[in-house]
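[recover] target loaded
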């Protein structure tokens, strides 16, 4: 693959920080990560407190993605740059293995700063190494994705005892095209769930983000849960849209343009940290939980998986 940009020494000081620390190769910013295991911010709303992301930024371009702030720290914007300027942690596997040697083994979420099976993964193939490192260290983990590329690694994921959470927030394609323009359609993701289950991978659906006043009507929630149940998913976790500052600016710019009548209601609904009003959130989650009971689906975050036996320990016993 040809190099498309100047080396670090040739990059001018006026360049964004990422362009002074990385090289542009094949349209992706290659960088050397200093840290792989990072704290998950509470606003994310997921069960895991630690996360791993081989990529930063995401071509799925989901308007409500809570990871957008990370691009600001690289000197890029949290809007279009997040969608199109993808950062690759080229040393992800080696750095992760080094950190796992002193990690306490708590459950880990994989793929929060950018879908770990987005298009960049076809080129860099970092995930097989990441999965193997977590498996060898005996660390339980959940992969969060919207991409069918995860099926490529189904065998190693099943072997590692991994959980996969496929994000399917709604099944209305008009909404998907507007707020998740680069992501696969809902039907493709439902078929992905079925394929993962058939391959022996523990698979749940992350019904997130539920969009206030856009995808939260009773019939919309009902249609989504019904189709999730038909896919064979092991359960549903639901999160109402969170709008931390960087995400809020990008999402609200779109909302004022596409649905100007809703903007004022959103301003009333969200607090400065980006959390929805508790009463609204509890009502929506309660509706989804009731629907899940009707379809005999588990609801909410599953119990933490038991720690895995590190591969090295197993070999030592032979």
């Amino acid at each position: 693959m040809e190099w498309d940009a100047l080396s670090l020494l040739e990059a001018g000081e006026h360049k964004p920080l990422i362009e002074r620390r990385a090289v542009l190769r094949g349209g992706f910013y290659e960088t050397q990560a200093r840290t792989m295991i990072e704290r998950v911010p509470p606003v994310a709303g997921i069960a895991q407190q630690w996360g791993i992301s081989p990529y930063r930024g995401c071509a799925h371009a989901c308007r409500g993605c809570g990871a957008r702030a990370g691009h600001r720290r690289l000197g890029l914007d949290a809007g279009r740059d997040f969608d199109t300027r993808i950062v690759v942690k080229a040393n992800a596997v080696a750095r992760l293995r080094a950190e796992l040697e002193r990690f306490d083994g708590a459950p880990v979420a994989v793929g929060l700063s950018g879908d770990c099976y987005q298009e960049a993964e076809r080129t860099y193939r970092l995930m097989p190494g990441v999965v193997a490192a977590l498996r060898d260290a005996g660390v339980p983990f959940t992969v969060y994705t919207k991409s069918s590329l995860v099926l490529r690694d189904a065998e190693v994921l099943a072997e590692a005892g991994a959980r996969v959470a496929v994000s399917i927030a709604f099944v209305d394609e008009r909404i998907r095209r507007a707020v998740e323009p680069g992501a696969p359609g809902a039907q493709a993701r439902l078929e992905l769930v079925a394929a993962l289950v058939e391959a022996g991978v523990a698979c749940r659906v992350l019904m997130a983000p539920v969009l206030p006043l856009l995808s939260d009507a009773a019939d919309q929630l009902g249609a989504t849960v019904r189709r999730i149940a038909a896919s064979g998913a092991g359960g549903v976790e639901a999160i109402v849209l969170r709008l931390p500052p960087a995400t809020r600016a990008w999402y609200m710019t779109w909302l004022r343009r596409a649905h100007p009548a809703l903007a004022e209601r959103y301003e009333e609904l969200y607090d400065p940290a980006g959390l929805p009003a508790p009463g609204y959130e509890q009502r929506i989650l309660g509706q989804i939980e009731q629907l899940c009971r009707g379809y005999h689906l588990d609801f909410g975050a599953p119990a933490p998986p038991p720690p895995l036996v590190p591969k090295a320990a197993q070999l030592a016993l032979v």
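[recover] notes: The radius of gyration is 20 Å.
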